[in-house]
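INFO  loader      accepted 1 record
INFO  loader      residues=475
INFO  predictor   begin
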Amino acid sequence: MTSVQVDKEHDGTDGAVGGGEGYQRGLGARQIQMIAIGGAIGTGLFLGAGKAIAKAGPSLILAYAIAGLVIFFIMRALGELLMYRPVSGSFSEYAREFVGPFWGFVTGWTYWLFWVVTGITEVTAAATYMTYWWNIPQWISALVFTVILYGANLISVKLFGELEFWFSMVKVTAIIGMILICAGILTIGFSDAGDTASVTHLWDQGGFFPTGIGNTLMTLQIVMFAFLAVELVGVTAGESKDPKTTLPKAINTVPWRIAVFYVGALIMILSVVPWTHFKPGVSPFVAAFEQMGLSVGAAIVNFVVLTAALSSCNSGMYSTGRMLRDLALNSQGPKFFTKLTKSGTPLVGTTFSAALMLVGVWINYVAPGKAFEYVVSFATISGMWAWIMILVCQIRYRAKANRGELPESTFKAPGAPYTSWFALLFIGMVIVMMGIDEGARVSLYCAPVWGLILGVSYLVLKSRNPESAAFAKRS
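INFO  predictor   done
INFO  writer      dumping tokens
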């Protein structure tokens, strides 16, 4: 990004129609709010929570509450940076400014890879869910979904926002519906579960920590995976109609979103169905519907998780194009990634990323029954890297702002930098837990390999194009 672009972003003078980086500000408050809500709700809750409940019992509620507090600290740190300078490049742009050009390069390409591999896994998951209703080859569903979402992302950012709005609406409605049904069972006693439902299930089946505190800690990696993509709202900054108003409002909803959709939903479900009834690989929502005697439960949950998967893939299409364009604007990626369509969408970057996501179609063709454990594990560690950089950048920004070297943000993170340091330590503990867990350890093996590839690539880039380090010299 040139110094002129940086100055323009600092003073926030870009108009309501065109963003400071050539984007159109087509995302309204309604869409930003639902993108923020939807980003915190995914298959990690609808499917992954079953394994975590079986491992930790009711104490999983506490794990989600503590992790949710950490997520709030991360989002407020991001909010402080966004109000200082709202840019579409977000995490990589801040890393470039506050840590150095190499770290901006690493963050941008890692976040891009995170969404590519997530898109592959999610489109595969969506194709798998379709077989519940129709006996069609998985690769056909995967191809159709990829093409449709790709086309929607190229038309306009407003269409992306509309798709994400309705995807999020389905997820939110499903959870609120489940909470209301469970509340009715607990108070009125209807359905097959009415005679046994009780809040005492939270502690009378072996206690609140029935399998020990150690197992509760081991579920933190599953919990944090469920929250991945909550930071997506930061990528929308360059295309929000009124970022200085809509983004703080969206970020400030994080506590109640987590309290209702995670903590509240789990309290209700575990009060209706004892934790001992849950099994790994079975959705807690499906298990709850079965306990209630509602045979339509499986079909409902299948539709919701299909929506969650498509929502994640849609977000991936959106994020990857913006991240590649930001890298290209800063001479850290091929220049052809800077090209925008007339509607303001990054044509080449989105097309390149979508083409890589088609690998998922090929995998569905040659091996439809294979799991994607290695890819999912790497997605977790690469997604958390963005959180780490957000916190590090906020700490460094706050220090510079306190010294008067930079303008103060209008949306300061409360308790920072102490809350940011606490969040960093918490993420470090989660990474240690991943190292202990044999199933998740593979992601820690993949990370150094990816880091080596990026390190060599950056050295080659820097030798050919010294301009890639220009931002750090200006700072």
